[in-house]
Amino acid sequence: MTAEQKDSASQVARDKSLRPALVASEKTFSEYSTFLEHLLVGLADESIPTALVCPADYRAGAIIPPSVEIISHPAFNLPLLWSQNRRKLVERLSDFKPTVLHCLCESKASLVRHLAWQMNLPYLLAVNSLQRRFDRLFISASRCAKIIVPAKSIAANIAEVYPRFAQRIELINIGTFTSELSTCFSQQSQLASLVTAHPLKNANDFENLFGAVKHLAIDGYEFMLVITGDGHAEKHIRKMLAALGLSQIVSIVPRLELWRSVLAAGDIFIQPRPSTAFNPLLLEAMSAGAVVAGCRGGVDDLIIEDKTAVLFDPDDELSIHGVLKYLFDRRECAQQLARQAQQYLRENHAVSKMVSSIMQTYQDAQNQFKW
């Protein structure tokens, strides 16, 4: 056997020893379902036995490969039975015999820390949003092997808020399958489509965008704007649209209803305000080939001026109007920018690289924590 064959056989043996148990939340399924699907399929393709702990009443649907063992938690949907639910979860996980735990959402950090302690296992903690000093995460200094983040901005934030864990931060880009074609103004005969994804929690977040859209309509541009999101301000936002005379131009689509199809049909994707979390919809829109108009601030790693996006000032209606008008008037430039963004994703956000990097963190955790 050659040295190369020995290395390959050794790698296969190491991979076969992996038995990760992933812990997901409702947010994982609603906002990061594409990431979860890609990760689970990738692990299945590598023949890695995998368990997924998910909310009992959540319908995972087709995103989970048949080979993945699903463990529902809580088993009993009664608040007073939390100790019984946790004991049942430990029993199910013990039957699976995981070698490492992977917490996919900050909201499950406390649960996974407890599981790691009770089952004598290392774990990985995924952090997908900026953290505040007064909202502390429960992180075990002895069992948390890595803190996985999808963006440099989040890595810097975690290092500042949790300096003792700075050396455990691991940047792994969320992967996507980038389309070979671009949706940006690809159908000249069809009405142009603008898409934005933003929580409907504060109507003021949309005020300048709606003002810019109204002026575009007055200027004679023909288009439609689709907002995908939900929140308690939706009623107020609809009233705002009606008052501006935009009800026939702007549509609101709930986040969970066919949002992938909405993104795939968009010519321009707009990020109207800075986001405090990694925006998977921005990633998927860019992957589909929409040109991105966005703003600086928050988790803005994907928004690189004149390389992956054009920038505007979210507090300046004229700035938003000028950027959108530029994209409409210079469609060839918009298409070129969309293609550049797709190439950036091919080079930096490949699914295969994401899966292999996460598998390596599993292996490192097992090697580092052998009690």
SSE diagram, text form:
Elements: H1 3-16, E1 20-23, H2 26-31, H3 33-45, E2 51-55, E3 69-73, H4 82-96, E4 100-103, H5 109-119, E5 123-126, E6 144-149, H6 152-161, E7 169-171, E8 192-197, H7 207-218, E9 223-228, H8 234-244, E10 250-253, H9 259-264, E11 268-270, H10 280-288, E12 291-294, E13 309-311, H11 317-329, H12 331-348, H13 351-368
Helix pairs in contact: 3-13, 7-11, 10-12
What does this structure look like?
The protein has 13 helices and 13 strands. The protein starts with a helix and ends with a helix. Helix 3 (33-45) crosses helix 13 (351-368), helix 7 (207-218) crosses helix 11 and helix 10 (280-288) crosses helix 12 (331-348). The protein has helices spanning 3-16, 26-31, 33-45, 82-96, 109-119, 152-161, 207-218, 234-244, 259-264, 280-288, 317-329, 331-348, 351-368, and strands at 20-23, 51-55, 69-73, 100-103, 123-126, 144-149, 169-171, 192-197, 223-228, 250-253, 268-270, 291-294, 309-311. Strands 3-2-1-4-5-6-7 form a 7-stranded parallel beta sheet, sandwiched between helices. It has a 6-stranded parallel beta sheet with strand order 10-9-8-11-12-13, sandwiched between helices. It has 371 residues and is α/β, with parallel strands linked by helices. Mean pLDDT is 90; it is low at 5-10. It is elongated, with a radius of gyration of 22 Å.
